[in-house]
């Protein structure tokens, strides 16, 4: 994200698995200031992302949060350099905005590439275990995921690649 995302814009971002912000991004759920409540997942996705106490603050006050604070709160996973204002009034040159958008896209693609280096079955099951952590506080969700992944060909390929000191080639099996 390389600009502002308020209300539904932030709620859309919260529906994603991972979020990359540029340093100039600004987010918030201003609905209570408009005498309404977030209606597209903000009241349950925000607490899941940043915790109940911090979510209460943002939802009840409707305050805007800059990218550095958003990163600190856990609203974004990666923070990249943003555009620099062209003039003292804070306006940005078009080329600076394009460059910031490119940095954000590059960081997002790099994040996806890093994830794709893992075994596809393991990544999918690990994500499920993390997403269902509240249901599996006893370790049951993680244990099921682990049991499922140890019997895969990808796991065997990973072990063979490690022994042979090479990069594994996963097939999703």
Features:
single chain; 173 residues; mainly alpha; 2-enoyl-CoA Hydratase, Chain A, domain 1; 2 domains; three-stranded mixed sheet; two-stranded parallel ribbon; 8 helices; flat
Description:
This protein folds into 2 domains: 4-116, 2-enoyl-CoA Hydratase, Chain A, domain 1 (Alpha-Beta Complex), CATH 3.90.226.10; 120-163. Helix content is 52%, strand content 9%. It contains 8 helices and 5 strands, in the order βαββααβαβαααα. Helix 1 (8-14) crosses helix 2, helix 2 (42-50) crosses helix 3 and helix 6 runs antiparallel to helix 7.
CATH class of the largest domain: Alpha Beta
CATH structural fold name of the largest domain:
2-enoyl-CoA Hydratase, Chain A, domain 1
| Unreliably modeled segments | none
According to CATH, the homologous superfamily of the largest domain is 2-enoyl-CoA Hydratase, Chain A, domain 1
Rg for CA atoms = 20 Å
In one word, what is the shape?
flat
Q: Give a count of the beta strands, DSSP E runs of length 2 or more.
A: 5
What assembly state would you assign to the polypeptide chains in this entry? single chain
Helix proportion of residues, in percent?
Answer: 40-55%
Helix vs. strand class: mainly alpha
User: In what range is the share of β-strand residues?
Assistant: 5-15%
- Major beta sheet, strand line-up: 1-3-4
**How would a textbook summarize the main sheet?**
3 strands, mixed
What is the total domain count?
Answer: 2
Q: What number is the mean pLDDT?
A: 81
The helix/strand series, from N terminus to C terminus, equals EHEEHHEHEHHHH
Task: Note the total helix count.
Answer: 8
């Amino acid at each position: 994200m390389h600009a502002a995302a308020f209300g539904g814009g932030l709620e859309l971002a919260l529906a994603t698995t991972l979020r990359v912000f540029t340093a100039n991004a600004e987010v918030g759920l201003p609905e209570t200031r408009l005498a309404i409540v977030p209606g597209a997942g903000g009241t349950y996705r925000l607490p899941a992302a940043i915790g109940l106490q911090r979510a209460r603050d943002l939802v009840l006050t409707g305050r805007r949060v800059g990218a550095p604070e958003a990163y600190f709160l856990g609203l974004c996973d990666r923070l990249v350099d943003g555009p620099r204002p062209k003039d003292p009034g804070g306006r940005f040159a078009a080329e600076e905005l394009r460059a910031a958008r490119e940095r954000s896209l590059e960081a997002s693609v790099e994040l996806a590439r890093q994830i794709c280096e893992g075994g596809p079955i393991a990544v999918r099951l690990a994500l499920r275990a993390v997403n269902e952590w509240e249901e599996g506080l006893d370790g049951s969700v993680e244990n099921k995921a682990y049991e499922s992944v140890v019997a895969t060909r990808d796991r065997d390929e990973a072990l063979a690649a490690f022994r042979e000191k090479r990069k594994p080639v996963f097939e999703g099996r």
